[in-house]
């Protein structure tokens, strides 16, 4: 039974994304050349440009896949039936676990803003991990009201800084405890 054109097209696209990810992690965006990517993917240069306008478009697809994987890990771990606080804490732990995937912190938090620009990365984050965080905060802090969006943005930045610190050798457990303390402090303050 032969594969459909659609299946072949998707397989080629995925091969390019996987090869691109590996090489972007290994060398960084600036040092990665498209001939390396097509060779690693086992496809032609024409196939690359059939699927992606240029190296930046491929990089953006890699970043989108990484962001979706992080959001999926958070959503899978943060079951609300255990309570809003427990869901947020579980989501925080899942975020740090997902960011521990080799190269992910570099790709999402260092390379992506430099290559794609902060607005594009913020929009991608708003659809993925930050969206999960916002939903969790809304459930945990219904009294946040107009502060929900700024709190989400600030806590999202705190998560990202923590992921960078953990990548550099910081104790993940300490950052998880710090996030819990921040959440509890916010709840105490808003509920007064």
UniProtKB/TrEMBL annotation:
Residues annotated as domain HTH tetR-type: 10-70
Pfam families, sorted: TetR_C_41, TetR_N
GO molecular function: DNA binding
InterPro entries referenced in this protein's UniProt entry, alphabetically: Homeodomain-like_sf, HTH_TetR, Rv0078-like_C
Nucleotide-binding recorded as keyword: no
Secretion signal, residue range per the UniProt entry: none
DNA-binding region: 33-52
Protein's UniProt name: AcrR family transcriptional regulator
Stored SUPFAM superfamilies: Homeodomain-like
Keywords noted in UniProt: DNA-binding, Transcription, Transcription regulation
Lineage: Bacteria, Pseudomonadati, Pseudomonadota, Alphaproteobacteria, Hyphomicrobiales
